[in-house]
Amino acid sequence: MLRLLTLAAALGLLSPWLVTLLADHSQHLAWLLDLASHWQWLHVALLLGCLALLGQRQPRWWLLLPLVALPWFSVAPMLPAQTGEVRLELRLVSANLQQTDDAAALRAWLDAQPADLVLLQEVTPALARQLASWQDYPHRVLAPEDSPFGLALLSRLPLEDGRVLRDSDAIPRIEATLRHASQAISLSLVHPMPPLSPYWHHKRNLGLQVALQRNAARGLPGLLAGDLNASPWSQATRELHALGWYRANDLQATWPALGQGWLGIAIDQVLVHGPWRVAEQHLGPDLGADHLPRRLHLQLLEND
Question: Who contacts 60 (Cβ-Cβ below 8 Å, separation ≥6)?
Fold first, then answer.
């Protein structure tokens, strides 16, 4: 059993590459391996524990030890460090609220730590009615639903061209342009269906790619956020740089909220396109949902 667990952990650490290799040959295997790819820290812990036990009796098992470094090589690219004069400061919050009808916890957090931009997922009609009364966020695009796919985009800064788009399965996303003085930023808020089957795995990947391409096509600095139902090791995000995008968030787990980011997977993400810099970021408090929110302080830099 210990040997099987060791091999399973090794397979999990290799899964981000195996998904790419198998994607054109077996959608079913690619889907299963992609599910395994989310849990890289669990695979690392499991492999280390197994090697500690097996290596005492059979030292050859230590040959697998270098595999624990793989998550740092297979992860989606982080936004490179950039320097330059700051053109715009943007503090944003992204949170999956798990269809709660009570905005009190979110409101208290924003009162204590105000944000310029709030991107919410799993927003119900009852919650949206409360959000619509928040006078400190006068610019908003609301798309509530009595389902896990309701969305809300709230901003202190003006929003233009706000729209709700739906894919062929009626799953929405929000697109808008944030404007501050002469600077415009293209925004996308998404929450795809979880990859519960090979079909939904494909739809999640395709939907995210379409959203990123549409955002970048506007020729503006871009920002996409939400519960992607994909970790930074997932097939959906590993090739971001090929589309000109980078991960702005760190690798702290956001789901489940149990464990406060120490156990779980980082499926709530913030992706950026253009000359951005991350000044600060951290996970927010438990808002009574099964996800922890992310808070980022981003700086848009002058183009060279």
Answer: none
